[in-house]
Amino acid sequence: MAINRAEAINAARGQWRVFPKDPLSALKDLRKGVEVNRNRDVNWVRVLEKKSSDRRIGVWARLVETPDGMALTLTDEDGFTATAQTSLRREVAKDASSALDALRDNISKMGATIFSALDVQVEFSQPWFIPASVLNPLRREALEALERTRARGFVRLERRQALEPPVPYPEDALSYLANVFNQKAHDFYARHGVKVIAPAYEAVEELGEVSLMITKHCVRFSLSLCPKQAKGVTGVQGQVKAEPLQLINGKEKLTLRFDCKPCEMHVVGKMKTSVANQSRKELQDARSGTPLTFHKTRPKQEFGH
């Protein structure tokens, strides 16, 4: 039975009901002695598919009677408090215990707000019946009031005094990769002891071949041509080298160079003459204060089809 790589992986994960005789034979990167873990716990998979974290602000809620209705007071864990009131025609609930539990459950529903109920206290002289059509707007009003209270009470931390002399930058020379494209950025690095500061690539001063993109994704690794993959394999170790490759798309050619120590792939190329000329024109316009022109459609005479 012939299977592809994706099918073999699904088989190894236990997602097939009927397994081929040798699903691992299609996994060319697996070797004898490699440990493979499989988990078929549906609940465990569902937990992984949910958000890893969702921070909420704890809130204590207190629902009390008023002369003509009731009031809901919310106090968060930072000490901010807000109260919302509503009028109510009192009617005793038929089932006292379930009515109070329903009230607590309803108030605890904070929805998509930044709050989460820590505790709910209902202080009624009698177990009044509170319809959801009255309690829901009251809860929303109290939550909105609490958010406004927090916004008014927000205190911004004071900015720390700058250290003098400034902390020295780890390097004393920066290439175009530092993306220094304005005087403020240049002054910052100079103030921190950088001696040589190259302008950003957009300044059109790097006209030769340079790294246009540096990525952890490695084509050689995807093709099983990574020297690290061959490490320890008898007869293969030392034979695989990280030699450059090329990406070719029509007339476009980009060189791929591999820096195995930090495990990075560099996409190397140079700026086209037309792009360089256009960038110089835009830079000159920006320096002279020429306003930008926005076009609804691509100008044919300037950019072509």
Defining key terms:
four-stranded mixed β-sheet; 8 helices; alpha+beta
Would you kindly provide a written description of the structure presented here, covering whatever features stand out?
By secondary structure, the protein is an alpha+beta fold. It folds into four domains: 1-31, no CATH class; 57-152, no CATH class; 208-270, no CATH class; 274-303, no CATH class. The protein has eight helices and ten strands. The chain is extended and about 85 Å long. It starts with a helix and ends with a helix.
Sequence-ordered SSE layout with sheet pairings:
Elements: H1 5-12, H2 42-49, E1 57-66, E2 69-76, E3 81-87, H3 96-108, E4 115-123, H4 132-152, E5 173-174, H5 183-191, E6 196-197, E7 210-215, H6 219-222, E8 245-249, E9 252-259, E10 264-269, H7 273-288, H8 300-303
Parallel strand pairs: 1-4, 5-6
Antiparallel strand pairs: 1-2, 2-3, 7-10, 8-9, 9-10
Distance separating the two termini: 50 Å
Calculate the mean pLDDT score and round it. Answer: 83
- Listing every helix as H and every strand as E from the N terminus to the C terminus, the arrangement reads HHEEEHEHEHEEHEEEHH
Number of helices: 8
